[in-house]
Design goal:
The structure is a single chain. The protein is α/β, with parallel strands linked by helices. It is built from six helices and ten strands. The strands form two sheets. It has a seven-stranded mixed sheet, sandwiched between helices. A hairpin with an 8-residue loop joins β7 and β8. α2 packs parallel to α4. The chain is elongated and about 90 Å long. Keywords: Membrane, Transmembrane, Transmembrane helix.
Amino acid sequence: MTDDVRNIVLGVIAAGISASLGWLARTYLWRRKLRRKQEFLGMPTDSESLLVVNRDAGGEGVHRYDVFALLELAAVVKDCGAHAQILSHDAARQGIGERTEFCVGGPASNRRTAAHLQSLLPGVRIDTDAAPGPDRAAFHIGGERYPLEPGVAEYVLLARLTTRQEARPVFLFCGQRAITNQAATRYLARNHEKLARKHGNGSFCLLLKVINSEAYGPDVVELVADVTRAAREPVPAAPRPSHRAAG
């Protein structure tokens, strides 16, 4: 074997080794990234998850933006190699922690959300009165009020909630309008790595603002605050009026 042939053979071998090492490194990084995503979302490969569907607050069906939200969540579930079951909010009668749950919609359109707010986020109060008025769909959290300005500034809660160690999480997308539910699911899909780094696998509740949805749809979202502490503390009961006996 001449020196030229030997150099060519060695070059091919070196290139093959480099390519193999590069492939192994990329595979390792991809698997680590997937594992972290699965841990944050509580969805190991071949696990089961639950998508809880609300109804349109103004009708009997599902709003098209909520359908889009479910499609975005279905893609997240598929990326984790898990499986999803879709249930209507009034048919999802089961406990918390057995399966990862994605619950879409506010308490006016989703009974399951109303139950989660009452038991897991007692510091959140949402006006569900359908009559027009300044407080319609307003959020009240920790003494702060966040009113609905349709198409201009709309709020949505994105929460990851667990009840015990090793329990599968509940993800809550509780918005003032259907388009804000989709905005929150898209925010989770795009920012799950950052959320996992900041919050780990613990519970959190974030208040997001959807800006100018009439022009930008669900794409322009601003993080207003981490309201976990205020949302998990029960609202103090109003003091009872004292009645003095007439003397």
